[in-house]
Amino acid sequence: xxxxxxxxxxxxxxxxxxxxxxxxxxxxxxxxxxxxxxxxxxxxxxxxxxxxxxxxxxxxxxxxxxxxxxxxxxxxxxxxxxxxxxxxxxxxxxxxxxxxxxxxxxxxxxxxxxxxxxxxxxxxxxxxxxxxxxxxxxxxxxxxxxxxxxxxxxxxxxxxxxxxxxxxxxxxxxxxxxxxxxxxxxxxxxxxxxxxxxxxxxxxxxxxxxxxxxxxxxxxxxxxxxxxxxxxxxxxxxxxxxxxxxxxxxxxxxxxxxxxxxxxxxxxxxxxxxxxxxxxxxxxxxxxxxxxxxxxxxxxxxxxxxxxxxxxxxxxxxxxxxxxxxxxxxxxxxxxxxxxxxxx
Length: 344
Fold this sequence. Notes:
Keywords: Metal-binding, Oxidoreductase, Zinc. It holds the Pfam family ADH_N. Belongs to the zinc-containing alcohol dehydrogenase family. Residues 8-339 form the Enoyl reductase (ER) domain. The protein is of the alpha/beta class. It has two domains: 2-146 and 289-341, Medium-chain alcohol dehydrogenases, catalytic domain (Quinone Oxidoreductase, Chain A, domain 1), CATH 3.90.180; 148-285, NAD(P)-binding Rossmann-like Domain (Rossmann fold, 3-Layer(aba) Sandwich). Helix content is 27%, strand content 23%. It is built from ten helices and 15 strands. Strands 3, 4, 5, 6, 7, 14 and 15 form a seven-stranded mixed beta sheet that branches. The protein has a six-stranded parallel beta sheet with strand order 10-9-8-11-12-13, sandwiched between helices. Strands 1-2 form a two-stranded antiparallel sheet. Strand 12, helix 8 and strand 13 form a beta-alpha-beta unit. It is globular.
């Protein structure tokens, strides 16, 4: 099969012909219909993730059609499926209590096992997969696998956002834009922070109540003014010190910070502990979403309760993935890219 392979960090992915994946006993092989290009992939491509090495195939936001099923698989050849990026084992305490996104035996394609920057991907633990409606395009579905689902879980589970609350979102990539769209669905007021005016204008077009350019003003002070005392919830979507601290500092007393952005490298950063202490803030981490929450979210999208089409800006070929990763080294254009062409 054709795949985009990491050979040297920060250099173009190598487009190679590699062996087709073997089918796991407890899973399936999917013919990949679409795969998102995510900032987490960028961290791996730059050498910032310990499980990405020479020979790795990235890609954890994917959907496709079953072409082979193992003897213990739940699904069958021909099924059209979408995958959460975290594949829980299904047998541990975490999986049995509904938090499979915390499973200690979890598998994440692209990080330790081959991912979906390829024509085919092997998916073990296929009980995590969910049927995909024929009415949803592969490009849109692929973007759900990490960004939209992670944002939904952050808002509804970790932050428990209530209608009328102010939600601040720091960074308007795939996660940030998803947070905006979903927080508005929940009835929240949303202020969006970025350093690119084009992305802030894009956010306004899609429902942002206010925007802040972090390159021009003090973020925390601006949000305190806009919200009349600080946001109740703040979502950090980049994984860096400056936005994490801006997120903490922009909160009202008893506010809730949710760390969605994946810190790269050793993961260490300096945070304003005085803000956490003095304002008695809650600091939540979050990663992914349990697969049992997928059907409800998919149903809401298909009913038209929320329009997530603004999130997908570009459909690209496999050979274009490198340029998308390289662009993440600086300010990026609105929306995200999804690989939908694997032959070139």
